[in-house]
Amino acid sequence: MSDSYAQISKKIKDRTVKVSVVGLGYVGLPMALSFANKGISVSGFDLSRKRISRLKRGISYIKDVTGRQIAEAVKKGAFSPTSSKKSLRDADVIIICVPTPLRKIKDPDISYILDASRTLSGQLRSGQLIVVESTTFPGTTRDVILPELKKSGLELDRDFFLAFSPERIDPGNEKYGFENIPKVLGGVTGKSTRLGKKLYSMVVEKVVGVSCAEVAEVSKLLENTFRIVNIALIYEFAMLCDKLDIDVWEVIEAAKTKPFGFMPFYPGPGIGGHCIPADPMYLSWKARKVGFRTDMVDLAARLNRMFPGYVANRAAGLIKRRGKKIKGSSVLMLGVAFKRDVNDLRESPALEIIEKLEKKGVKVDYFDPYIPYLDIHDIKKKPVKLSASAVSRYDMVLLATDHSNVDYRLVAENADMIFDTRNVFERNGITGNNIVKL
Ligand SMILES: NC(=O)c1ccc[n+]([C@@H]2O[C@H](COP(=O)([O-])OP(=O)(O)OC[C@H]3O[C@@H](n4cnc5c(N)ncnc54)[C@H](O)[C@@H]3O)[C@@H](O)[C@H]2O)c1
Q1: Checking CA distances to 169, which of 222, 225, 323, 350 falls within 20 to 30 Å?
Q2: What's the pLDDT score for residue 1?
């Protein structure tokens, strides 16, 4: 057994291990605090000086984490946010949680991972475990990150260890968080897997070790691809049911009574967020590299991409059916975040719907309790205050995001027409002739 392996194992065992989280976003920040809350010393390294300065002052920028939680961890000395790359050298374990978005041409953009690996390589020392959590294509850990780390002159399995463990966090989910979601982990070597398992077992209820990093990388892509394929299927059902004049929501409720072999997926305004729209592209890109076509995934991605356009067209059609001109009509968009109870606008379908409606000459305003100002793409808007008179001014209220803390009854009682893409009104026991479901 190498000295480094024994050293890290011992530090994990006696809980003196120092952890550094690279990238303090939706994934990295809650994770850093989970380690800190379990009495582990954590430093958080982020390139954004603005974020670091906020964290130092106990200010949160993520809804699932409170300023108080940050302030307490910082005050206790359990969590040290920093933009100094030297902090990486002090740590025994470095967990990489940087973004993995798409480039303009919808190919994987691994520049953040590369950048973080290069920074880390410059600071690497003997006796460190590196875990990558960012979602990415199979082979990234072994073929992209490892060569960067080797440039340090240090040797895998003698000096350092490397594993991939996909993050499964679901922001806004109050039932499942970092600690009670089983954690899959695969090392580039067996020793890396074993060390990684020991590390996460300190904070996570169940760690699932797999044979290699590639299995862990693909397992994350399978999970999210499973979702996009099923979402695309339910979008197709929603469009078909509209043509057949059948309530797709009732169809799903009926199908869901089967106790096996069925899992309900629900329609909505379109897919959004940092993961679901991007991850299948990582998979199909890698597939192309090895001469394989992911037809099913590509079709699902295409269906999902067109859905916000379908929603915008249906909204315009509904306005027209009321005998109103589309051009010059007005829509109040209820919820613009990409999903319920988060303040995350990334890839939100609501934004595309706004753009598409505005192109048709519709005036669109919005209300979202979590988005105090919209300044994204070419959209710049202040929210309206949700009141009876405000709601009644619009030709349509288009519900895009079903946040829990909205007075839906007030909306239903005052709106001329509601187009509900999430079935939130019915779910809240509110019905009315003015409500049209997707
Ligand atoms: N958000 C989710 O719900 C979710 C869930 C599961 C997995 N993931 C995956 O986790 C990864 C991170 O996602 P996120 O949502 O936390 O991203 P994010 O954009 O919220 O946060 C990323 C952070 O990394 C920082 N950063 C970028 N480059 C850096 C570098 N070289 N060094 C240090 N810091 C750097 C940014 O400043 C930012 O604060 C992605 O691969 C994503 O696909 C996200």
Answers
A1: 350
A2: 59
How far apart are the CA of 193 and the centre of ligand 1, in A? 23
Count of beta carbons in the 10 Å neighbourhood of residue 381: 16
Tokens (6 digits) for 241: 């049911």
Pull the structure tokens for residue 47: 């390139």
**Global model pTM greater than 0.85:** yes
Tell me whether residue 275 is one of the annotated catalytic residues.
yes
φ and ψ at residue 364, rounded to 5 degrees: -115, 125
pLDDT along the chain (438 residues), means of 10: 90 97 95 95 97 97 92 96 96 97 90 97 97 97 98 97 95 88 98 98 96 98 95 98 98 98 97 88 94 96 96 98 96 96 92 97 97 90 96 98 96 98 97 96
CA–CA separation, 344 vs 338, rounded Å? Answer: 6
The neighbouring-strand residues paired with 131 are 95, 163
Q: How far apart are CA 322 and CA 248, in angstroms?
A: 23
- Local structure of residue 108 (DSSP, 8 states): B
What domains are there in the chain, each with its CATH number? 3-211 (3.40.50.720), 226-437 (3.40.50.720)
Tell me the CA–centroid distance for residue 46 and ligand 1, in Å. 10
Which of 26, 29, 133, 342, when mutated, tests ligand 1's pocket best, judged by the most ligand atoms within 8 Å of its CB? 26
